[in-house]
Write a structure and sequence with these properties.
There is one protein chain. By secondary structure, the protein is α/β, with parallel strands linked by helices. It has two domains: about 45 residues; about 130 residues, Glutaredoxin (3-Layer(aba) Sandwich). The chain contains five helices and six strands; from the N terminus they run ααββαββαββα. Strands 1-6-5-2-3-4 form a six-stranded mixed sheet, with helices on one face. Strand 2, helix 3 and strand 3 form a beta-alpha-beta unit. Helix 3 runs parallel beside helix 5. It is elongated, with a radius of gyration of 30 Å. The relative contact order is 0.17. This is Cytochrome oxidase.
Length: about 190
């Protein structure tokens, strides 16, 4: 009997019990903390590229024609697929206007919801434009947000949604395809206009 009592209380068993509890606690803390620390490191080091699918640049913070002190004749009626006309419209500018019209035509079923627009400064000389294009006067404040020769998408509420900066002529067709893709996606998801 004396041997049986002696074997059940072993000094080796008593020493492992506190260490085992501490190891389990450390393992649990590491199990829950390591993913958080890894995610924090990945985000802070900018190693993660989000899955952005749009081709244009979203205009943030929210910006409207009203905030820019501009009258929007199409507000509440149509989406705007616009082009900011430079002071002088040379061959590259003419090509971009042509692509604007082609993009509008390529919208297919969504075409009736969108008006192609040329944004101009007051008293600016206009090139010959198709009759389907609307002309909207802008101000210098507008040009600070959307530089000339860029495409712009504006919704029916008068909010400037997305901007496509000017590119070299060899990239204009691919940019036009990206513009079409983004605009179709916006129109499909939109509950306005």
């Amino acid at each position: 009997m004396k041997d049986l009592a002696h074997t059940s209380v072993s000094p080796v068993g008593v020493n492992h019990s506190p260490w085992r509890g501490r190891l389990v606690l450390i393992a649990l803390v590491l199990f829950f903390a390591l993913p958080f620390l890894a995610a924090k490191t990945i985000l802070s080091q900018h190693w993660y590229q989000s899955g952005v699918t749009n081709n244009g640049e979203l205009l943030e913070p929210r910006l409207t024609f009203e905030q820019l002190n501009l009258d929007n004749p199409l507000q509440g009626q149509q989406w705007q697929l616009g082009f900011v006309l430079p002071v002088s419209c040379e061959q590259s500018c003419q090509h971009r206007l042509y692509l604007l019209g082609q993009t509008h035509t390529a919208l297919g079923q969504y075409q009736s919801r969108v008006t192609p627009v040329v944004y101009v400064l007051p008293n600016q000389v206009l090139p010959e434009l198709p009759s389907s294009f609307a002309v909207v006067e802008i101000n210098r404040q507008f040009l600070q947000s959307v530089p000339s020769q860029g495409y712009l998408i504006a919704d029916t509420l008068g909010q400037l949604v997305m901007f496509f900066p000017p590119v070299v002529e060899s990239q204009q067709v691919s940019q036009s395809k990206g513009l079409l893709f983004d605009l179709r996606k916006l129109l499909k998801l939109s509950r306005v206009g």
